[in-house]
Amino acid sequence: DIQLTQSPSFLSASVGDRVTITCRASQGISSYLAWYQQKPGKAPKLLIYAASTLQSGVPSRFSGSGSGTEFTLTISSLQPEDFATYYCQQLNSYPFTFGPGTKVDIK
Amino acid sequence: EVQLVESGGGLVQPGRSLRLSCAASGFTFDDYAMHWVRQAPGKGLEWVSGISWNSGSIGYADSVKGRFTISRDNAKNSLYLQMNSLRAEDTALYYCAKDYYDILTGYAAHWGQGTLVTVSS
Fold first, then answer.
1. Which residues of A touch B61 (CB under 8 A)?
2. Which UniProt keywords are given for this protein, alphabetically ordered (chain A) (predicted)?
3. Span A4-106: which CATH code?
């Protein structure tokens, strides 16, 4: 199975900060990667698919990049509504594993 | 508007079975693959299983393979998860999610609100 790691696991940031989260795969997954945002008590929300394609309706301050084994999610200017947990997920092969998550908290 | 409503969760003893359902509306159900994803209390997300539009392609997490069975009834716009030989570690909120395409890409833009399964004696 393909394992995903995320760094950092926890991030404390201020409104307006540029935030970068990294996701690494245990083997190459081309661009078969998604990023999700989850807020407490809510279902996950798809932000990015195919590593860099912004899901419809998602603000342009979110962007994704990478291919192969290393990927990044960047929030260009953190907004109050962005404080949440972020997960990457590989879609290259079954099982479609998720990363352990990165919690973004208010500094 | 896409709606996914899960049901069938509850408290069940270890070793017993439970069947989850997901009622879909607001889209042409048999045009899309579907997934089950779970989240144990206070933990991260775990993809459980997925099924293509015509049930021709199915995948499972290693942790449930041989115990859980995913199925769908396109005539009833419904997705199911038959869970057998339940264990304490299966305790989680189970989400139903709609794929982007008819094949299993895994990209899920629409999710239900989940149904809670608690496995305990």
1. 95
2. Adaptive immunity, Cell membrane, Immunity, Immunoglobulin, Immunoglobulin domain, Membrane, Secreted
3. 2.60.40.10
